[in-house]
Amino acid sequence: MELASLSANLLLVSFIAYLVATLFFGGAVKKASSETTYKKSHWGLIGIIITVIGFLTNVGYFITRWMASGHIPLSNMFEFTAAFGMMLVGAFILLFYLYRTPSLGLFALPIAIIMISYASMFPKEITPLIPALKSHWLAIHVITTVIGEAILVISAVAGLVYLLKHVDLTKPSKQRFWLEAVMVALILVVGFVVSSTTFKLTGYEAHFTYVDKNEKPAKIEYNYPPLFGMNGYEAQTEGVMEPVFEMPAIVNAKTLTTFVWSVATGIVLYILLRLIIRRPVATLLQPFAKKANSQLMDEIGYRSVLIGFPVFTLGALIFAMIWAHEAWSRFWGWDPKEVWALITWLFYAAFLHLRLSKGWEGEKSAWLAVIGFIIIMFNLIAVNLIIAGLHSYA
Amino acid sequence: MSKIKCQCGHENPFGTVLCEACGRPMTEEAKNSEVVDMRYEGSARRSQTYKRSVIDKIWNFFSSVKIGVAIIVAVLATSAIGTLFPQKFYVPVNSEAEYLAYYERLYGIFGTLYYKLGFYDMYNSWWFKILIGMLGTSIIIASIDRVVPLYKSLKKQRTKRHMSFMKRQRIFGEGVPQQDVDVEGAFAKAEEELRKLRYNVKKEDGAILAEKNRFSRWGPYVNHTGLIIFLFGVLLRGIPGFYVDETMWIREGELRSIPGAPEYYLKSNDFIMEMYTKEEADEVFGEALDRVGSIVKNYQTDVTLYKKKEDVLPGSTDMEFVKDYSIIVNKPLKFDGYNVFQMDYRLNELKSMTMQLIEKESGKSFGEFTIDLDDPKGVYDLNEGARVNLIGYYADYDGVENGEPVSKSPIPNNPAFIFDMITPEKPQGEKSFVAIRQTLETEENAYQVKFVSAETRDISGLTIRKDKTLYILLIGGIIFMIGVIQGSYWNHRRIWIQKNEQGQLVVAAHTNKNWFSLKKDLDKVQDYSGLPTYVDRQDTDATSEQEEGEK
Ligand code: HEM
Predict the structure, then answer these.
(1) Mean pLDDT (whole number) for A45-69
(2) CA B515 to mean position of chain CA atoms
(3) Which of A7, B18, B76, B85 could link A64 by a cystine bridge, Cβ 3.0 to 4.6 Å?
């Protein structure tokens, strides 16, 4: 238990470090007039030092949790997503080392922060390993994949900076709409964190029985007031809200309930924000992106795909196939999670070819990088929660 | 086709964009462009040159990267649609009608459509296979179309380039040395620094070509070769004999020949399923166990592997012991290229049933007998000359059809028996139908066969694989990785330095990617040797940033 709580504290420290570092990177960018000047700023230097300290405590979290549970902490949704946040910071440090640009940190760290908060909403207790996961390939395959994906995500961060700098936010356009949509998506994740924390603090619980899709009886616990009821549900807890709609068996009404609450909270947050600032949310961030060097951001976007793609291939396809062969007797089974790894890979292959031959650089390439990020997140979140195959952690 | 002769005297193949030797632009387009397109060194590619015959057209189609990307995106999109609903092989039914019913029941109209369009078996559909075939074709043709001319022109390149080539590079600078050195001195120092940065430096006619990591240009071709080898391996799997995929169910205590591995036999000694217990899980996992209930820790089948003796007659079952092994998930039994995996299990299958014969009225017993459900005997002799004949056995009793009891399967899920009970008092025998929790008699009997106990055992579901293509796939994967690393983690950089007609220094540089690092190299050389400053014609921000700095 000692180790487990030490581990939790280390994670908290790194979380705070990332918050503080973000402020310093913000200071670095704000004080300077251009890329060339802020590269030399002290604020940026302090920012990266705090980031590295945060990253080290984050690695400390990972190792102590590993020691506490006896297996690598990559076996459920919390552990996996938290590791993703950690690796994202690691990938940022790598690219900072290569390009020394604080504006990347200003945008990469908040994404890591959101990711770690998101992770913390899932059950955090240490779970024992089921037989299928008991293999050293778990560590090899998942770590490599997460590192690869994290580096690929940096490409989207550079892309976002590029877009924030170049998209004209003063008049309506397709670009402005989609850029704002990306902002909304991020706010929705915050909405999930806020609503989930609220109900957790109030200790909300509602138990139901229902009939699953193979027509067998099953039980479920809600942590949100149930807007949607499972197929043929019956309430087991006194005095809780009656679900408003009953869902067919293929829909996980609990996930849907969580989703709708999160989206609603997110939308309320967004509307409040709009009411206060009276212009697109992206305009809040734009001044921080304006000073970045476009050519450099474009190059970081490309370079991080070049660095991440081989790592991703190795982890998500090659190691995955070797392990699948050991564990399930076939190296490839068209399981949704596998297919989405293939889709991610094909997408980045397409990205590289478009860039290479059609000269899709600059804005087009930045959009592609953002789409790549969405695909990776889709595989992490939606495929786990909705499509759920063999790999489901939920 | 005719050759085109450049002013420098070099004869270029038809279709060349930049002279292979001196780099002069050969086409109007190249002459008019400010920054020349350096892809494939402006060499003559078949696809850009021949456009007449059907073969040319097919070749050009597949060598186009635009088409290549379209194919990749098509594979991507079809794959994604296939994850919308579960694929056929994850649906636990067997007949086509049941598939349709399944999709319809769970997904309504969309499910029906998914079934009707064949999306429920996407990855085995002919159109998916054709797409993969086109992908392979495209990779092969596009690579051949480019690699040959690229190789030739990189080999033939001259150190001294024509000024029209230099001026059209993305990175270009011209002028007198910045430091207090003459032109020759700057040359010498630049050369020194370039060598320090591990460039290969060639000198010719007072010109320098510094080149680094040319091998990285072959990366894409190596990785494409790996992909093709991989796809070839996948193709081979379609040929029978390359690939064994069988399943077997084996009961505890049973010895069976291994399907797909004709020489081998397997005996199951025990099947074990363990759960995490509260005690061993201690404080660490306690919370998780509380939340989700029980969690499985291990599935395991302890087996003994036997091999048919070699020099015995065919048909003989003389066997020799090979090894004892515990097959667990993630640790298959391996022998002779085969892998046997723990895949499934069934607990507590009936193995035998013990019954007794009693006289109904007095309850007097004539003794017990045990029916081995794998191999039921015909006659069971009991005390006092009584006897039970087993005249009908239905392992998986499923009701009566046309006056006959029927069995759904040979697996004893629901065994039923017809007994003929012969006793000293009723020597002609009484018939009785006995199933679990039920006894049927044609007429009222005096005697009865009663259930006493049942013995069970577990069954392991094992999968047997032998896959001769795995090595091909693995080699393909390794070659792909080598190629993709070679092409991504190194880049081909070239720096040209020479003098113009006025005797000033001219610098130009090119890299296939990672311009940032190329510029860092150039900056070092510049600092050391005083080469003139250069501009990056694509970095429009840099100029405005400098102006800002000067304000
Ligand atoms: C899934 C399939 C494919 C993968 C994973 C793949 C992978 C790659 C990679 C990693 C590169 C290097 C990119 C870079 O350095 O930026 C590359 C280059 C290239 N690929 Fe592919 N490729 C695939 C399919 C194709 C197809 C279908 C074509 C057909 C048109 C094609 C044509 C090319 C060409 C022309 C290059 C550039 C070669 C050069 O720069 O010399 N590739 N490929």
Answers:
(1) 91
(2) 35
(3) A7
* Pairing between β-strand B447-467 and β-strand B243-251 as defined by DSSP bridges: antiparallel
Q: B299 pLDDT band (50/70/90 cuts)?
A: confident
User: Which residues partner with A218 through β-bridges?
Assistant: A210
* Cα B220 to averaged position of ligand 1 atoms, centre (Å): 6
- Residue A384's pLDDT band (cuts 50, 70, 90): low
Residue count (chain B): 551
Q: Please, are residues B509 and B251 in contact by the beta-carbon 8 Å criterion?
A: no
Mutation to probe ligand 1, out of B139, B228, B485 (largest number of atoms < 8 A from CB)? B139
Question: Which residue has 């050009």 as its token pair?
Answer: B60
- Tell me the residue length of chain A: 394
Which residues 262-321 on chain B approach chain A with CB closer than 8 angstroms? Answer: 276, 281, 283-285, 287-289, 291-292, 295-299
Compute φ and ψ for B393, nearest 5 degrees: -135, 125
Give B 513-532 residues with CB within 8 A of chain A.
Answer: 513-516
Position B542 scores a pLDDT of: 61
ipTM value for the complex = 0.89
Burial letters B347-383, b for 16+ CB under 10 A, else e: eebbbbbebbbbeeeeeeebeebbbebeebeeebebe
Find the B33 Cα to ligand 1 centroid distance in Å. 26
Using an 8 Å CB-CB cutoff, list chain A residues near B460. Answer: none
pLDDT at residue B127 in the model: 87
Average pLDDT, chain B: 83
In the predicted model, is pLDDT for residue B541 greater than 70?
Answer: no
Q: Return the pLDDT at B135.
A: 94
Q: What pLDDT sits at residue A351?
A: 94
The reported pTM is 0.85
Phi, psi for A150 (deg, rounded to 5): -60, -40
Q: Which residues contact B290 (CB under 8 A, 6 or more apart)?
A: none
Nearest to B242 by CA among B223, B260, B218: B260
The single residue listed with the structure tokens 């800002």 is B548
Angle at A182 between CA A176 and CA A188, to 5 degrees: 135
Give mean pLDDT, residues A172-191. Answer: 88
Listed residue (B16, B5, B20, B130) closest to B74, CA to CA:
B130
Checking B61-65 for CB contacts under 8 A at 24+ apart, the result is: B62/B134, B62/B137, B62/B138, B62/B140, B62/B141, B62/B142, B63/B138, B63/B141, B63/B142, B63/B144, B63/B145, B63/B146, B64/B142, B65/A353, B65/A356, B65/A357, B65/A358, B65/B142
Ligand 1 atom 4, closest CA: A349
Mean pLDDT, to the nearest integer, of A364-385?
Answer: 86
pLDDT at A35 (0 to 100): 62
The alpha-carbon gap from A302 to the nearest alpha carbon of chain B, in Å, equals: 8
Most confident by average pLDDT, A295-304, A384-393, B184-193, B422-431: A295-304
Query: Which phi and psi angles does A391 have, rounded to 5°?
Result: -85, 0
Binary contact (B541, A36; C-beta < 8 A) = no
**Per-residue confidence at B108, pLDDT binned at 50, 70, 90?**
confident
Torsion, Cα A349 A353 A356 A358, to 10 degrees, reads: -140
pLDDT, average across residues A348-371: 88
Q: pLDDT (tens digit, 9 = 90+) per residue, A101-122?
A: 888 888 999 999 999 988 888 8
Strands B387-394 and B365-372: unpaired
- Atom of ligand 1 lying closest to residue B512 CA: 40
Residue A337's φ and ψ, nearest 5 degrees, are -65, -40
- Rounded to whole angstroms, the Cα distance separating B176 from B188 reads 15
**Closest by Cα among A252, A191, A257, A247 to A227:** A257
Nearest to A123 by CA among B387, B188, B287: B287
Which among A353, A354, A355 is the best mutation to test ligand 1's pocket, defined by most ligand atoms within 8 Å of the CB? A353
* Six token digits for residue B106: 């769970």
